[in-house]
Amino acid sequence: MLLLTGREQEYLLHAILGAHGIAAPGDFFLWSQGPLQTLLPHDILMCAQLDADGAVLRSEAWHSAAPDHALLRERQGQLAHLALAWRAGGQGAAVIDGVLVHGSVGDAGGSFFALFAVMPADAARQAYVLELLLPYLHVHWLALPGSQRARMTGPAATRAASARELEVLHWVREGKSNDEVGEILGISGTTVKSHLQRIYKLLGVSNRMQAVSRGIALRLLSH
User: Which pLDDT value is given to residue 179?
Assistant: First the structure.
């Protein structure tokens, strides 16, 4: 694990706190061009929704400069190749063909992010920072309102998750431990853990906090 400098830690905290204020496309744009840009300088951020096989369903480009439509089409064409290469390479944050990439996968699909930059940088360091920020990119981009937004809907995720799993997620959101959830639902703590593991895989997350945030974003849980 890399150690961040004091300034990088400050920037990271600013980015994490700022992400929680994202509620509209304009918020995401300002965040991507502010806190995210400070940590991970880039010219174009490409965000994509993936299907269960890793193919790109829809994508969107975020950039501050006036768009070069030919360049955007080129980047769009690269996205599918980058997503497949990322999956084949172990699905970790990495630089592929000079592009910083990372994403999240699950049974119902996932997300993929590619940051195109002009100036080369410390690849290992940037990959580590992107790994730390992935949950915030994943949750907040997929949750943006608007018909142009590529995201999995709440009903689709609900059909994939069982009623018992949604009950478990509800009580996890209330701060209950596995054993406490088990007592409430009349099942063992081990069974609760198994339900949580499937929830993590389904939602493309790796811990309880991320699962709750994603559940709220997908309207599986009420605020």
Answer: 95
Which residue, 142, 177, 197, sits at the end of a domain? 142
- In the block, tokens 């994490």 appear at 16
Tokens of 42: 């880039």
Segments in 20-56 forming alpha helices (H): 25-33, 35-39
Q: Are 82 and 97 in contact (CB under 8 A)?
A: yes
> Which of 56-60, 117-121, 134-138 holds the top average pLDDT?
134-138
**pTM value > 0.70:** no
User: Which among 93, 113, 142 is the end of a domain?
Assistant: 142
Q: Provide the pLDDT for residue 119.
A: 67
- Asked if residue 46 belongs to a domain, the reply is yes
Secondary structure class of 61 (helix, strand, coil): strand
182: Cβ contacts below 8 Å, ≥ 6 apart: 188, 189, 191, 192
CA distance 154 to 218: 5
Q: Which CATH number does the domain housing residue 24 bear?
A: 3.30.450.80
94 with 189, same domain? no
Return the beta strands (E) in the chain as ranges.
Answer: 44-50, 56-62, 94-96, 99-104, 110-116
- What whole-number distance in Å separates Cα of residue 129 and Cα of residue 8? 9
pLDDT per residue over 170-192, tens digit each?
Answer: 899 999 999 999 999 999 999 99
The reply to whether 90 and 136 lie within a common domain is yes
CATH classification of the domain holding 183: 1.10.10.10
Domain that holds residue 185: 154-217
For 19-26, what is the mean pLDDT? Answer: 84
The per-residue pLDDT for range 46-69, each reduced to its tens digit, is: 999 888 777 888 888 888 766 677
